[in-house]
Amino acid sequence: MSFDNDELRDEYPDGTVRLRNPNIELMDQDILYHLALGSGSHDLVEMFGDVKFVCMGGTPKRMEQFAYTIMAEIGHKLPCGTTLQDISQFSYRYSMYKVGPVLSISHGMGIPSVGILLHEVIKLMYHAKVRDPVFFRIGTCGGIGYEGGTVVISEEAVDGALKNALELTVLGKNIQRPAKLDKRLVRELKALSDPEDPYDTVTGKTMCTYDFYEGQGRLDGAFCDFTETDKMEYLESIHKAGVVNIEMESLAFAALTHHAGIKAAVICVTLLDRLKGDQVLAPKEVLDEWQQRPTKLVCRYIKRYLQMKGRLSLDGHGSICVKSPRRFKLVQQESETYD
Ligand SMILES: O=P(O)(O)O[C@@H]1C[C@H](O)[C@@H](CO)O1
Ligand SMILES: O=c1cc[nH]c(=O)[nH]1
């Protein structure tokens, strides 16, 4: 596993997530309000200490489906007659599912929503003493020059003015956080795309906006003060600058994970080519199938990682096995923890 931000990796050599906030360890307890969890009320090490992958996406449904998909892929078994529990159900904000070493969490729409979640999930990683977690955003986007159904792995995130940083107003002053993503992770994910996949998987710059309509140059919002010519000039200019897709979370996702020294990637599927239109016209069943595509890539990455770590392998009969340093058993037979 590599890190682009080597400075941070040197600073925190044991791989645990350290907070850039001295106040937290002085507090009696830390209430992760929007997750319905707390360091005083829950044994976060026991509950989350084995987490390795944190996968986020906009909707609770997508992330519940992802949790069931990854469960089947890694052969994780639930006790008979049980279903996955939404751990953050009583926050009434986000949904969170845990499947072995994988957390699947909905982040809602836009930078403020994903930003609040990232603060609390990064603190959760810290309280749980998780080592070297990898964060993924599994999302949807508008393509720039790419048809609907194309998978885009972000090389970096830029704002609507092509700035590669998240701007925040803190105590009345504007601060900027670089919105960097892990380059090696981009290459590893791209290498996991299969030539047999019936769609393209591409890499490039992702533009992140604060709005779906005017902010993304749409002509079909409730308001529009520009012409179609203005819109096309803008979209062509960002296309020329290397932007391949537009969505609404990557800037905060890249900036906050980078600031915490956490390796992260953004993988989205395009719902339309914005050079050809504004409205999302694909039927619901098609949209549902497209949304599975980034998920497949992330599943391949997680399975590959677990196989390389010797925690997941195929036995002589083609069944998935989960190994631990102390034991090796068929996961089909019982529920597993990854230690
Ligand atoms: O992960 P999702 O599908 O929520 O990402 C994009 C960006 C906005 O949140 C939303 C707009 O439709 O879709
Ligand atoms: O065009 C689109 C489609 C999905 N999400 C966005 O933010 N924009």
From TrEMBL:
Q: Write out the GO biological process terms.
A: nucleotide catabolic process; uridine catabolic process
Family of this protein:
Belongs to the PNP/UDP phosphorylase family.
Q: Where does phosphate bind?
A: 93, 137-140
Q: Which GO terms describe its cellular component?
A: cytosol
A molecular-function term among this protein's GO annotations: uridine phosphorylase activity
SUPFAM superfamilies reported in the protein's UniProt record: Purine and uridine phosphorylases (SSF53167)
Superkingdom of the source species:
Eukaryota
Q: Per its UniProt record, what NCBIfam families does this chain match?
A: euk_UDPppase
Q: Which Pfam families match?
A: PNP_UDP_1 (PF01048)
Ranges where the Nucleoside phosphorylase domain occurs: 52-303
Q: What InterPro entries does the record tag this protein with?
A: Nucleoside_phosphorylase_d, Nucleoside_phosphorylase_sf, Uridine_phosphorylase_euk
Write down what this protein is called.
Uridine phosphorylase 1 isoform X2
Instruction: Please tell me where substrate binds in this chain.
Output: 216, 218
